[in-house]
Amino acid sequence: MADRCRPRANSAKSAGPQEYAQLRGQTSPATPESKIYTELVVLLKETFDPTKSIYRRRHDILMTRLPSERPTEEIVNLANLRGDEFSFGDLTLDTFKIFLMLLFCSDLFYKNIRTVILKAVDDDKPDITTEEIRCLLKRYETRTVDAEIDSNSAAVKEEISATQVNLVRKKKPVQKLNFHANSSPSAKEPRGECYGCNGNHLRSICKFRTAKCHNCQKVGHIASVCRSIKSKPHLHSVLVNCVLSGVDLTKGEHSLLLL
Fold first, then answer.
1. Which of 38, 39, 127, 188 is paired with 105 by a 20 to 30 Å CA distance?
2. Using 50, 70 and 90 to split pLDDT, how confident is the model at 181?
3. pLDDT cut 70: percent of the chain above it
């Protein structure tokens, strides 16, 4: 009885802690040791046999990297184990060249190219040649370029549409009025009614400021203004006196105007 149980115990315990825990989960609630040897072998194959293609297993082996500060014994043992799994006896020259392609394209930039190669060399076509891989990669590049052209064309159309919409919606800038009289040398001076000649300009620039009235013989206005003031009896006499005496109403004296 002990001899029959020994192979079962040795087979189950020969696996590492993680593998044994995985095997224990497969046999739960029973234990791996409770299985007969043939049942245990079948269970081990179902649980731990490789599910990847030979190309993918070889690729994973070639991409294996050890962390720093590992002992030399572990390095040699890992090389022996992974070398046995590589199935080097079945490796052809084309297969070796394809693995070189994968190693050459290990940079992240070539991620999509690596995916194309790995998909092509799967177990569905294990005898694929490097020339067939070349054709697949050419077609992939063509599709990629076409996709970029379509994408750029769509982006250009969107940009043109956005520009046209902006042109339609664009409003003319509102011209700001400058209310500062001295902001520009060419700014026009404000205009007003001159009380010396009834002209549409400031009293200070009137050319009749020193003119002598032919009506009343006083200086500072012309006769037509003098006659028009006398013809309006409703104006206060103060206004008449101010105008006739040549008072400059633009300097504040226009407050004397009484209606």
1. 127
2. very low
3. 62
In this structure, the answer to whether residues 30 and 110 fall within a common structural domain is no
User: Per the domain annotation, does 172 fall within a domain?
Assistant: no
What contacts 24+ positions apart, CB below 8 Å, involve 231-235?
A: 234/259, 235/259
Q: How far is CA 256 from CA 41, 44, 200, 239, 246, in A?
A: 126, 121, 21, 7, 14
Dihedral sign for Cα atoms in the order 17, 19, 23, 29: positive
Find residue 193's DSSP bridge partners: 200
Return mean pLDDT, the chain: 72
Residues of the domain holding 252: 203-256
Let me know if residue 168 belongs to a domain: no
On the CB side of 175, CA atoms within 13 Å amount to 2
**Phi (first) and psi of residue 44, to 5 degrees:** -65, -40
* Separation between Cα atoms, residue 130 and residue 136, nearest integer Å: 10
